[in-house]
């Protein structure tokens, strides 16, 4: 080989050698990327769903858990499994892995593959121990990690039963390392007491941190009743414990002494809850007891007795309390004898929870809301787990007290796992009682046996005959009915759909509004006192916007012309518009909100709500029809009253004469003498329209008139209205003198035509003048007919509705 050829070959060998060296340097990086594959570790495909990934993770975690698997490599394998699930369970991390492959643990998302060489370059010169920063998150903290979906579906609802202490951290947070020992001690102390623990990674869970308003690491957050509070003191275990206590409501536990223990125990009748008394030597209420009271505050009332106080000696002697160990007494209806007692030197949360859970309800609780009904009388799921509810329908009047006490004694003597005893006040739960009693009014208490079947409210039930007075005969009869029901569940022969129960314990609107305002101002104060300007901007923007709108409105009103805000004078009642003038028709009513008119039929069920108990100021416009004229008159009626259907105080109904033929004659007979003209003929009521005021007990009457080609048809409007009280009749006569001449002309023509012309009125012409009559109804110029009481729809009933 010549020297020239050697010179040409040397650069080729040199470039090849450099390429080999470069590949050897990069080989560990590719090997490390290839040896860790979360899909292979979990044994799932790249198109696996989240449910499949979660199922595979749970299976492998149980298999390789260090406490169960004694293999030396179990801990390393478990860490790989947890890390793989941490990557694949987060869609952002999973997409990042699928796009770029395995990254370094602290590599931020969105980093390009070329930046991996720079990461490798840094790791080549510096070891991670140089920073003394842990390479991966500790195994003990992985179970506390919170994700956005998990927080909203599990943690947030659970915060209404127990408080949560949440730490916000990040991987490169050096300040987080300093508080780690205190955090571990606090978790070891508070978690056994029932405090929920959570950790949020600020780098991975940006969406969740923004939702909570946590923008810095480290931060510590308290979560109670869905409300977020930030910890702003020095990170000391005592401060964190006090922070949790301050988050709990101050009224959870009542201090009990010799002077108030009787009133506390006897409040079960009002609160409808059992009462728990805790006796202990310490003067302050233990945090464990507060947390238990917070978890069961919807079911049980809690009181605390300090055994070391001198003003509690009588209480300790009466219940024979051992002063050497904490004692819990649970009382129900009997305030002298507790139904359950527990005493232990080391009172644990599990023991207290089990103690309260087994006694959440009174022996015979009152149904005060739907949640209590669902828990006390659950829906039938299996034959062996069916529950029958024995329900007493009574009232809170003192006359019913002996019967209620007898029902309580019967329930205490007949305790069975398949039976649930309860009572309800008919005055407070009228829809429920009407559904079970078939709308039959009853003055004596009734006992109903029922079994719930569906979530929609369907039940099977049977009423116990004879009522309930608490006598021995009633007890014997009820015992026999229960025995028959247990032998044959088909004994419940009736079915009904129960409405949702009224919440008797719900606070009134003003209380809820004040609580919401208090929480809001408390949050604003906390934000202004501790937050930085970036976190304060939304609140400041809201405050300045409200101030701008307020002062802007005041300035506009101050500089507006005085005449613009003056209300228009109402039209004089002495000069109503003529019946023939229809240019302003419909101006007195609001525009309709719907494109149809809701017309309901007056039946035995809707009669009370649509007429007898109609709210003050509301009027029900009722069309009288028959089966033959129903379709024609309803279409015409809807067309005439459509422009008035937007009025909030008007309701529209119809009455079928074929079903309730006696009602119209009974109504006219009950009219006050002098309100109806004696010469008026009421042989046919089809096409009549009544405007009924249920509160003041009067009505206005529209009579159908013939509308032919005669020009005097418009003037017959006053003939369609029946005179009422003397005051309204004199006002209408004095205000319509100009129309009396045209009225008399039509009256004369009508008298000549006689009954033959009246019977020839076509159905679709009967309501031609109803629109003008509705105008006068809204103006208040129609005469009124007063009645002492509304007749009943039932022809066999002699009672009237006052």
Describe the structure in your own words.
The chain is 42% helix and 13% strand. The chain contains 28 helices and 20 strands. The chain has a six-stranded mixed sheet with strand order 15-17-16-18-19-20, covered by helices on one side. A five-stranded mixed sheet has the order 5-7-6-8-9. Strand 6 (275-280), helix 14 (287-295) and strand 7 form a beta-alpha-beta unit. Helix 3 packs antiparallel against helix 4. The radius of gyration is 40 Å and the shape is globular. The protein starts with a helix and ends in a 16-residue tail after the last strand. 25% of the residues are buried. It is a single-pass type IV membrane protein. Residues 562-593, 709-760 are annotated as: Disordered. Keywords: Autophagy, Glycoprotein, Membrane, Signal, Transmembrane, Transmembrane helix.
């Amino acid at each position: 080989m010549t020297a020239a050829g050697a010179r040409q070959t040397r650069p080729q060998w040199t470039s090849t050698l450099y390429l080999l060296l470069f590949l050897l340097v990069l080989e560990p990086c590719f090997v490390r990327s290839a040896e860790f594959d979360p899909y292979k570790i979990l044994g799932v495909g790249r198109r696996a769903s989240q449910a499949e990934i979660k199922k595979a993770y749970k299976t492998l975690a149980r298999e390789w858990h260090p406490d169960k698997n004694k293999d030396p490599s179990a801990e390393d394998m478990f860490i790989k499994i947890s890390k793989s699930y941490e990557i694949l369970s987060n869609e952002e991390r999973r997409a990042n892995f699928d796009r770029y492959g395995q990254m370094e643990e602290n590599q931020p998302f969105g980093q390009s593959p070329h930046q991996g060489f720079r990461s490798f370059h840094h790791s080549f010169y510096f070891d991670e121990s140089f920073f003394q920063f842990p390479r991966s998150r500790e195994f003990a903290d992985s179970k506390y990690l919170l994700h956005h979906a998990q927080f909203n579906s599990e943690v947030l609802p659970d915060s209404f039963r127990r408080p949560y202490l949440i730490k916000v951290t990040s991987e490169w947070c050096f300040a987080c390392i300093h508080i780690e020992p205190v955090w571990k001690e606090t978790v070891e102390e508070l978690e056994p007491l029932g405090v929920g623990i959570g950790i949020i990674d600020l780098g991975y869970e940006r969406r969740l941190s923004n939702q909570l308003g946590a923008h810095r690491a480290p931060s510590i957050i308290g979560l109670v009743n869905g409300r977020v509070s930030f910890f702003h003191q020095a990170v000391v275990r005592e401060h964190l414990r006090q922070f949790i206590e301050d988050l709990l409501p101050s009224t959870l536990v009542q201090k009990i002494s010799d002077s108030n223990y009787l009133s506390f125990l006897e409040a079960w009748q009002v609160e409808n809850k059992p009462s728990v008394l805790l006796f202990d030597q310490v003067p302050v209420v233990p945090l464990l007891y507060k947390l238990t009271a917070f978890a069961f505050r919807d079911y049980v009332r809690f009181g605390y007795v300090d055994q070391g106080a001198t003003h509690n000696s009588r209480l300790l002697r009466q219940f024979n309390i051992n002063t050497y160990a904490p004692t819990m007494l649970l009382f129900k209806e009997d305030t002298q004898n507790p139904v359950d007692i527990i005493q232990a030197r080391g009172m644990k949360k599990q023991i207290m929870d089990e103690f309260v859970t087994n006694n959440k309800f009174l022996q015979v609780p009152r149904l005060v809301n739907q949640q209590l009904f669902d828990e006390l009388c659950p829906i039938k799921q299996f034959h062996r787990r069916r529950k029958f509810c024995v329900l007493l329908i009574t009232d809170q009047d003192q006359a019913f007290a002996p019967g209620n006490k007898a029902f309580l004694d019967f329930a205490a003597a007949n305790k069975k796992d398949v039976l649930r005893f309860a009572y309800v006040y008919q005055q407070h739960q009228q829809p429920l009682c009407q559904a079970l009693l078939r709308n039959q009014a009853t003055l004596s208490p009734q006992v109903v046996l029922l079994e719930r079947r569906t979530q929609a409210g369907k039940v099977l039930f049977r009423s116990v005959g004879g009522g309930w007075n608490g006598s021995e005969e009633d007890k014997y009869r009820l015992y026999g009915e229960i025995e028959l029901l247990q032998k044959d569940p088909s004994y419940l022969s009736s079915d009904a759909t129960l409405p949702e129960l009224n919440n008797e314990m719900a606070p009134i609107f003003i209380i809820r509004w004040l609580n919401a305002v208090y929480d809001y101002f408390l949050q604003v104060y906390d934000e202004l006192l501790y937050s930085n300007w970036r976190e304060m901007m939304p609140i400041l923007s809201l405050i300045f916007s409200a101030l701008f709108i307020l002062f802007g409105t005041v300035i506009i009103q101050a500089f507006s012309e005085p005449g613009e805000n003056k209300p228009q004078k109402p039209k004089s009642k002495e000069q109503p518009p003529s019946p023939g003038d229809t240019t302003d028709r419909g101006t007195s009513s609001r525009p309709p909100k719907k494109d149809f008119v809701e017309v309901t039929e007056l039946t035995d069920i809707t009669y009370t709500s649509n007429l007898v108990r109609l709210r003050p100021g509301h009027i029900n416009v009722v069309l009288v029809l028959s089966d033959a004229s129903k379709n024609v008159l309803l279409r015409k009626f809807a067309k005439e009253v459509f422009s008035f259907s937007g009025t909030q105080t008007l309701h529209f109904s119809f009455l079928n004469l074929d079903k309730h033929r006696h009602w119209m004659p009974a109504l006219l007979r009950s009219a006050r003498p002098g309100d109806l003209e004696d010469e008026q003929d009421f042989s046919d009521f089809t096409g009549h329209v009544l405007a009924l005021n249920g509160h003041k007990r009067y009505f206005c009457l529209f009579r159908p008139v013939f509308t032919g080609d005669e020009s005097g048809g418009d003037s017959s409007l006053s003939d369609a209205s029946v005179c009422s009280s003397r005051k309204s009749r004199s006002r209408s006569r004095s205000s319509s003198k100009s129309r009396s001449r045209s009225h008399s002309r039509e009256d004369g023509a009508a008298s000549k035509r006689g009954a033959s012309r009246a019977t020839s009125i076509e159905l679709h012409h009967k309501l031609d003048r109803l629109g003008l009559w509705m105008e006068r109804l809204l103006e208040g110029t129609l005469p009124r007919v007063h009645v002492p009481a509304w007749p009943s729809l039932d022809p066999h009933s002699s009672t009237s509705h006052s």
